[in-house]
Design brief:
By secondary structure, the protein is α+β, with helices and mostly antiparallel strands. The protein contains two helices and six strands, in the order αββαββββ. It has one domain: Roll (Thiol Ester Dehydrase, Chain A), CATH 3.10.129.10. It has a six-stranded antiparallel sheet.
Length: 148
């Protein structure tokens, strides 16, 4: 996948590892237009269009932002957990800083640490100009693969 990025999220795009299931799909992610553009376990990046994901006042909907955050964080947890593991978000905290009204928003997820069965992530959401529109913290529960 090609990624358009601003200076805040510049870098080489990394593909999903070969072991990562290719049949994982999310109907909600598809409806929102979420795409993962960087599969680096230390910095998972995803983006989503603002258009089609707004609330009645034309601003990016907070629920859409949380869905983007949950998507990148959950994929980061899955990458960190390794093949065969299952992850589920158990806590999400989001703060909104600036409204987004057009273009795309990009979420950059970095690990805060893990002490299995928990993994925590910080996620920053920026607009096309690199302005922070939201920040969040996601905690996931990790169920390692059997036999691991």
């Amino acid at each position: 996948m090609a990624a358009q990025r601003d200076a805040r999220v510049a870098g080489v795009t990394i593909e999903a590892p070969a072991w990562f299931p290719t049949d994982i799909t999310s109907a909600l992610d598809e409806k929102l237009g979420i795409e993962i553009t960087d599969w680096d376990p230390e910095r998972v990046v995803g983006r989503m269009p603002v258009q089609g994901n707004t609330q009645p006042y034309g601003l990016l909907h907070g629920g859409a932002t949380c869905s983007l955050v949950e998507a990148v964080g959950s994929y980061a947890a899955a990458l960190g957990a390794g093949p065969g593991a299952h992850v589920v978000g158990i806590e999400l905290n989001a703060s909104y800083h600036l409204p987004a009204t057009k273009g795309h928003v990009t979420a950059v997820c970095t690990p805060l640490g893990s002490e299995l069965p928990l993994a925590a992530f910080a996620i920053e959401v920026v607009d096309d100009h690199g302005q922070v529109t939201a920040s969040a913290r996601l905690t996931c529960m990790v169920r390692p693969a059997r036999g691991a």
